[in-house]
Amino acid sequence: MAVGIFDSGLGGLTVLQAAEARLPEVPFVYLADSAHAPYGVRTADDIFDLTCTAVTRLFEAGCNLVILACNTASAAALRRMQESWVPADKRVLGVFVPLIEALTERQWGDNSPPREVDVKHVALFATPATVASRAFQRELAFRAIGVDVEAQACGGVVDAIEDGDMILAEALVRSHVEALQRKMPEPDAAILGCTHYPLMQTSFQNALGENVRVFSQASLVADSLADYLDRHPDMRGTGARDFLTTGDPRRVSDRATQFLRRQITFQSA
Predict the structure, then answer these.
(1) Per-domain residue ranges of the chain
(2) What is the per-residue pLDDT across 219-256, written as a single tens digit (0 to 9) for each?
(3) Annotated catalytic sites, by residue?
């Protein structure tokens, strides 16, 4: 048994890398649904069906706990999965929780009424599907009041990163930041709402300016996972590490190796 990490592509490797550093004794199985990436332009029903298929594969690999290291899947499918699909002996967690915890400085189990927090103007950079779901705004509203969220759908960034074209990705980041600043000139904080975006964090920070606090997910998710496993040690797992993809294993392995700058070898899912 291992802990599963799922993403539509390679962005979740940023979460995997942080989780491995934080929890070196825990085995992880990573699944990239490369054949159907990107999810960010798909319908909610399509995302739900694809995510359930991928998570089922991780369950079959012996993972009782699966992290959706994909904001689009977390936004469009997670709540529906948890309410009507996930078996009683399994757990599927998303990546919004650690972000909201960090932004509002309150624990997820804190069910007190929403209150004012330090940040007032938040820029959200995410895929079109994540933006359309309004999941981040909905979850934030349960815990904070008086926070203005301006969302920017960052079309093309994931594709450029997956293709290894970082020059194009950087140009797109600048363009999307400029588009957001026309709507919200001076955000207090920025949320990188896609697990691909930590690779572009410096570009986002430079475009936004040094006074904007940028929240990136990888380390936040890793810390949250460590806390969860401390409270649920039966989910820690003892299986072997593996990398699975629905796409071409050789091509995905090459991209992943470039992505993490260490040798990664994927197998067919």
Answers:
(1) 3-95+218-268, 97-216
(2) 889 988 998 898 888 887 667 789 999 999 999 999 89
(3) 70, 194
